[in-house]
Amino acid sequence: MGQHRYMLLSAFIVVTLAACAKEEPAAPDQTAGNTVAAPADGAGVRTLAQRMARGGKLYAAHCAACHQASGQGLAGAFPPLAGSDYLEAGPAAVTDVILNGLKGPITVNGMVYNSVMPNMSYLGDGDVADVVTFVMNSWGNPGGEVSAGEVSAARSKAVP
């Protein structure tokens, strides 16, 4: 019983610290990390590698405290993102969780987790898109990309 209390207390502390973490404000020409619509000729479009690099930095700042730098999560507390069957539902499901948070039991790779993930709707559309793209293409996950426009559309449907 003591170990269970220790795990819950540890999980609470990690969630609290993660929820309070904030990224430094961007330079004026990069506000909120939003991806600007690319011109019709394709100039200014970032490559998958560039999005992955940026998404990795955002993941480290906003997600790794709970899901770990390696995406392995914390057994019994926070589900893994590495090789996660939860991600097979596609990037839209991940976007929804980031924008709306998640509470209640979920099963990931056959293990039940019943923690709370706070919403991270404070992140800009481009930030969310790059984090989701990073997670979907890392650690043996199925792959996929999300655009800032798709995040914006999902945000407009997000639970208030």
Summarize the entry for a quick read.
This protein is 43% helix and 6% strand.
Shape: globular
Helix and strand pattern: HHHHEEEEHH
**Whole-number total of structural domains:** 1
Relevant CATH superfamily:
Cytochrome c-like domain
Number of β-strand runs: 4
Task: Give helix % range.
Answer: 40-55%
How does the major sheet shape up? 2 strands, antiparallel
Count of alpha and pi helical runs: 6
Describe the structure.
With 160 residues, this protein is mostly helical. The chain has one domain (2-21, 49-156): Cytochrome Bc1 Complex, Chain D, domain 2, CATH 1.10.760. Helix content is 43%, strand content 6%. The chain contains 6 helices and 4 strands; from the N terminus they run ααααββββαα. The strands form 2 sheets. Strands 1-4 form a two-stranded antiparallel sheet. The protein has a two-stranded antiparallel sheet with strand order 2-3. α5 (125-136) packs across α6. The model is unreliable at 3-43 (pLDDT under 50).
Which features would summarize this protein structure in a list?
two-stranded antiparallel ribbon, globular, two-stranded antiparallel sheet, Cytochrome Bc1 Complex, Chain D, domain 2, 6 helices, 6% strand, 160 residues, 43% helix, mainly alpha, disordered N terminus
